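hey so i finally got around to running the thing on that chain from the lab meeting. sorry it took forever, my laptop kept dying and i had to restart like 3 times. anyway pasting the input first so we r on the same page abt which one it is
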Amino acid sequence: MANILLLHGPNLSQLGSRDPEQYGTATLDDVVAAARAAAEAEGAELTHLQTEHEGELVSRIHDARTDGTDIVIVNAGAWSHYSYAIRDALELLTIPKVEVHLSNITAREPFRHTSVLTAVCDGAILGFGIDGYPLAVRAGLNLHDGVST
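ok and heres what got predicted. didnt touch it at all, straight out
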């Protein structure tokens, strides 16, 4: 059974009420439930952490090196665009890593066009809203199992 770690950064706790035109009306609980259902359908287990504190996210990524985590899926929110601490922590991992964003960050404000995390992840899923999370689960599992996607 693969162990998937789903990570969310700042302000994602406000999904459902934060800019619904950009992020939709799904809550963070809805997003996690969609990812968990996709994981369980494939016989995998999913744990989740959302935090407003960058150091907590970095520490959790470090823990993933030795705690049996097989796959990391990360939506670091605004940290995606400038957190070299999160980037460096992800780079240490030798397991599959999938970046996911609800919105298409490349079609938004210029400061959001670049994610410093993308280069150290195996892939990125952008702009599919809540539907991106089951895609990220499947992509991570395929990478873990060595399946070509």
